[in-house]
Specification:
Strand content: under 5%
Largest sheet: 2 strands, antiparallel
Number of strands: 2
């Protein structure tokens, strides 16, 4: 049998040229399996490339809590732990000396008293640790507040809306695009002036500063 290599039509023996496309006929065609294998190999390579070349995940910063807020949180936790631990110990003592009589077996009484007493003592210890942490954070908060005041003073003197917009050539861009470009510019400017700032701290500071610089005049 003869085959057309172009249109893959089959002819009886004796015919030399394809009636449809004019190509000379051949005795055999290339194996279709090779073509299929080639396509499958290409698809596998593409799939491998798509999964291997993962886009880097965006950097995420959890909402920044300043030292003053953390100190307040620790202080609240300390009061709660001390209160629960203290009241719990009083109840355990009353229970142990049968002031609160629950009619329990002696073994069960000792076991409950020991376990619950240890738990409430742990609460008190945790409360004391939280209170100490609160005092340490209050000292750090004082330094952080001084730094924040210094940064605020600097950007109010050096970052003006008209100058920043002119430098960035914002023109008539949508307000959303302006926000991101202004934010990035402010961040770089402050980082150049004040070294080694915590990034989450700086992001929160700029979010609070942005309305003061770019929205105050628009209101």
């Amino acid at each position: 049998m003869a085959w057309c290599p172009n249109c893959k039509c089959e002819y009886i023996e004796g015919i030399k040229v394809c009636a449809d496309c004019g190509c000379e006929l051949v005795d055999t065609l290339e194996s279709e399996n090779e073509t299929v294998e080639t396509i499958e190999e290409i698809a596998a390579e593409v799939e491998k490339f798509e999964f291997d070349e993962e886009e880097p995940s965006p950097k995420y910063h959890s909402p920044y809590m300043n030292n003053e807020e953390r100190a307040e949180e620790n202080r609240t936790a300390a009061y709660t732990l001390l209160l629960v631990g203290g009241v719990g110990l009083v109840l355990i003592v009353l229970f142990f000396f049968d002031v609160i009589n629950l009619h329990m077996a002696l073994t069960s009484k000792y076991m409950i008293t020991g376990v619950m007493g240890a738990l409430f003592v742990l609460f008190i210890i945790m409360g004391i640790v939280s209170m100490k942490n609160s005092r340490i954070l209050i000292q750090k908060a004082s330094k952080e507040n001084n730094l924040t005041m210094e940064i605020r003073k600097w950007y109010k003197e050096n970052l003006k809306k008209e100058q920043v917009d002119a430098l960035l050539e914002l023109g008539e861009q949508p307000e959303e695009l302006k926000y991101f470009q202004r934010f990035d510019y402010m961040k770089k400017a402050i980082q150049n002036q004040f070294m080694n700032l915590d990034e989450a701290y700086l992001d929160r500071l700029i979010e609070e500063a942005y309305p003061e610089i770019f929205e105050e005049e628009e209101v």
